[in-house]
Every structure is written in structure tokens, then in C-alpha cells.
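Reagents: none. Just compute today. Glucose-6-phosphate isomerase.
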Amino acid sequence: MSRTATIDRQPAWRALQAHADEVRTTHLRELFAEQPGRFAYFHRQAAGLTLDLSKQRWRPETLELLLELAREAGVPKAIEGLLSGERVNRSEDRPALHTALRLPADACLEVEGEDLVSAVHRTLTRMEAMVAKFHAGQWRGATGRTISDVVNLGVGGSDLGPLMVTHALADYRPAGVHEIHVHFASTMDGSQLADYLSRLNPETTLFVLSSKSFTTIDTLSNARTARDWLFSRLVVAERELAVDVDRDLVMRQHFIGVSASPEKMSEWGIAEVNQLEFWEWVGGRYSLWGAIGLPIALVVGMARFRELLAGAHAMDRHFQAAALEDNLPVLLALAGIWNVNFLDIRAHSILPYDGRLEYFASYLEQLEMESNGKSVTHDGQVTTYSTCPVLWGQLGPNAQHAFYQLLHQGTQAVECDFIAPLRRYDDVIDDATRTHLKNQHRLTLANCFAQSRVLMLGDNAIDEPGERPNHKRYRGNQPSTTLLLDRLTPRTLGALIALYEHKVFVQATIWDINPFDQWGVELGKQIAGETDRILASRQGLDAMDDSSRGLIEALWRVEEQ
Ligand code: F6P
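Predicted 3D structure written out:
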């Protein structure tokens, strides 16, 4: 594509606009009626995942035109650039090499003279040693008791990935090891942390400070509170416990740091042996594959953590090698582009039908919206087209009793992703319980398939819709994608996450935006700092706008009572 012409001036974009005028007025049920074998045509499989795109509001010609758009936008070359370590994060002038974190040990990737594979595997080996020590019950707190609770203090990418995966893979805890209970505290108001502090024993609790920058106020506030809790409970209790506990010992036995800034970890007091490093070329929301994944490895063990990496790597290989028309991330991205840019569908709901994926939607909210919630191209031009849709979601079966009403009868067009494993509960030992749980799983799949069908067909999902008042009518025609996993395993989960990471990249490539920076969060941080100074000093209120002044004065009135 020429650098001066934006993507919406390119032939494929224009052809898609013309084509959309015609498809827009065609209902999904007509698309199904006119194309027998639509599932066979529009579904693909790779890395243990099945992607069904047949319920998108498109025709085979639509996909042809979208593939042409991808070619015009240079998607194949962009994929090569991403995976080979080009400086694709242009505003920060660095590569985005999360895929390097999941390369096998015998792979080779040298970027700008550095052998990344060895560096990555050195960190994995250090993680492995740490995890082994915890699982052997040999990581002891300052008073000599074995650590049994680990609290991850981090936010955004330093929280959501590990939180989502530890929850999803909780079934995969290894047998016969000392169990570590892993908790997550992210909120800057301290409410999650306060709850843990009221319940956990300081002698057996360790904190992992996860922060790429090690400057994030949310995490550092929680970390300070945690540190002082340990000092006051362990150091002051020295005589009572009859153990020689000093602050250095507490720091050494109760804190691990994970960051791209070893200097800042040292300044904060994290012992060098407890520092796990990662690199500036790993974006925060793409970082669960390395040291930020320590909580995951503490829950499932290092062998399963490596399976998670292998699953993601399988998706990376597919992304690199598959033709565009068979490439799952590319196809998922194109469905999104079609909805946002040509059908004006700018809301996207993520609906997993498996309780273990409870945090998957929150994870994707950051991945997609922090990556592609942009309106400036690589060249600094304001985009003349829409980019990332508003994305939200929650467990599908629960959402059926919450916001599906809007999906079925509201005024918004919404694209939905249904996600479900085909097999579940095979390993439940007790026969009666297994039968019940398997029935529950089948019921859940029935709901998953039924909901996407009703959203597609509306009233026509039943044979004889008959005459009905408007409030009982369903218009259907809501597009959806269904993603099936054979089972939810470390491997398939790894592939699923990587699928969405690459989808985001392909969309960013077509929209000509940088998915790896997040300048949009900076101003809020700066103004929050200034506001906090005003709250503390009670000076400078005159410079504020009328609403902010009113809110601050309301706070001060309460403080004065
Ligand atoms: O404020 C946004 C952000 O920078 C995210 O991109 C990041 O994942 C999160 O904050 C946490 O940052 P850090 O890991 O540096 O503490």
C-alpha cells in the first residue's frame, strides 16, 4: 500500500463498501438458505481449535474481498516482520516479541545481534528452580515456616493474564507437591489486598511484585502496604516468636519481583536472587508467557506451563505458515473488520461457555481495547475509519440471565464470540457425579449452540413462528463466531490466547495503527497525580473545573466531619 493513501482509499476497501450495501439488507437466514454447506465452507481447524465463521453476515465473495484487503494492507509481510523481530512497535521503536517467549529451546532467533531463545530459556530455567522450591515445601518465610500462600501484586497485563490462566487451568494442579494457594490483588484502593491481609498468615505468605515498569502506582501502593504488614507482624513479633527476624530477611523470604527494570526492583529492596526479568520488547498485555506467568507455574507446575507455551507456539507456526484463507487469526480478524468497518457493528461480546474461562472476557478487554483502541495511524494521521469495537463479556450461561435480552431484542447490533470445549469431566472418578457433571456440560453446549442459532435466525429458529406481538418477536441477524476446543488444556488455552493476540495484530495492520503502545493511558495517570497532590495539600483547587471542584469539596466536607 502506498504510504500516502490510507486503507479506506484502496480498491479492496471500496469494493467491500459497494458489496456491503448489498449484503447489509440480507438476513442471515437468507444467507444460510442460499448457501448449502455453509459450515463446511466457513469453518477451519488448527492447533486443537475449530473456528466456525458461518454465522457471520457474509458471503464467499465477501471473504474473497476481505482477503484481498489483507493482501493490500501487507498482512503477510507484517506477520513476517512481527515474528522475525522487526521494530513493529514504531512509536516506542522496538520489536514486539511475545512469540519469542514461547519458542522451543532448540529454535533460533537472533534479533539485532542478541540470541533471544537462550535468554528466554535462562529465565524459564530460573522460574523452574523457584517453582520446584515452592512445590517441595522448601521456600520458607522469615520465621522458618513453609510458604503456602502467594499473592500476586500487579495490574493490567501484570494481573489479567496470570489471573485468567490460573483460573482456567486450576484442574491441572500437579499431584504430590506442596500446594501453593495463589491470590491476586490489583485494585489501587487496596480492597482485595486488605481482604487477604485479614485472612492470611504473614509467616507463610509471599508476595510477587509484578510490574513491567516497576513504577505503576497501583501496584507499588499495594506493595508498600504488604511490606509494612509483614514488617509489623514479623519484625515486631521477633521476641514473641523467639526468632531473629530482621527486615532484610523478610525482604528475602517474602518478596519476588518480576519486571523489565532490575534497577527499580533493587531500589525497592527485592533481593537480586528473587528478581525475574523480562524485556522491553514484551508488551505488558502480551507478557503472561514469561516471568509474569510465575503464578501460573506455581499453580499448574512448570511442565504444564511449558505445554501452555507449546500450544501458543503451535498457533504461531500456523499463523506464519497457513495461507491467508486458512489462517485462523487472519479470518477472525477479517470477520471483525467486516463488522466494524462495513456493517457498522461496533459492539463485540465475548461469551465463554465454561466456568473456567470466567476471566477470559476481562483479559480480552485489555488485549483488544488497549491494543487497538487507537485513532492515529503509524504515520501520525487521524484515521478516517473506525477501529476497535467496544468489547465486553462474561460467562455465556450467566450472561443469558443478564444482558442477552439486549442481544436478542435491543437496538444494538452486536458481534458475539461463543467459546466452548467439546469434552469435559472425563476424569471425574465418582461415576454418579461424573454422569451428572457430563449432563451439565451437554446442557451448557446445548445452550451455547441454541443461543448462536437464535441470534442468527430470530423467530425463524422455531418451525412455526406464527403471529406474535412485537414484544415477543426476535429479529435475529446478529453475527457470531463459534470457537470450539476439543478440551480445555494448557495447550488449547495457549493456542486460544495466541489466536486472539494475532487477530489483534492483523486488525491493527489493516487499520494501520500500532497495537503495542498505550499512550492513551498516560494523561489520566498524570492528572490523577496532580489531583492527589491537591487532595493532600488542599491547595490549587481554583485551577480546577467546576465539576471537579464540587467533587473535591464534597470529599473535604466529609473529611472535616
Ligand atoms: O496503564 C496501562 C499499563 O501500562 C498496561 O499497559 C500494563 O499492562 C499495566 O499498566 C501495568 O503496567 P506495569 O506492568 O508496568 O505495572
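The CA atoms of residues 179 and 429 lie 21 Å apart.
Action item: order primers for follow-up constructs.
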